Amino acid sequence: MQVRNLRMSAGLLSATGVGEADAKGNVNGRVQVELRAQATQARATLSLTGTLAQSQFRRSN
Predict the structure, then answer these.
(1) What is the CB neighbour count within 10 angstroms for residue 27?
(2) pLDDT of residue 9
(3) pTM, entire model
(4) Can you tell me the distance from the alpha carbon of 10 to that of 19, in angstroms, rounded to the nearest whole number?
(5) Dist. CA 28–CA 46, nearest whole Å
(6) How many domains does the chain have?
(7) Distance from C-alpha of 16 to C-alpha of 34, rounded to nearest angstrom
(8) In sequence order, what are the residues at sequence separation of 6 or more whose Cβ sits closer than 8 angstroms to the Cβ of residue 6?
(9) Residue 60, pLDDT score
(10) Is residue 6 classed exposed, middle or buried when 0-12, 13-18 and 19+ CB atoms within 10 A define those classes?
(11) What residue numbers bound the domain in which 53 lies?
(12) Residue 38: per-residue pLDDT
């Protein structure tokens, strides 16, 4: 299964990304997260790895 053009938002937080899961339940993908406040803005790129049961997000460069 593939997920493309993923878009999420909640208040000051927004995220976009892509991901996929294979037949064995392994997942991988990438999510770009942005937090916007009046005085500052923070961005991070996260990689998604693991399995459907135990997914992990890690900050990537």
Answers:
(1) 19
(2) 96
(3) 0.80
(4) 20
(5) 11
(6) 1
(7) 9
(8) 15, 16, 17, 18, 19, 31
(9) 86
(10) middle
(11) 2-60
(12) 87
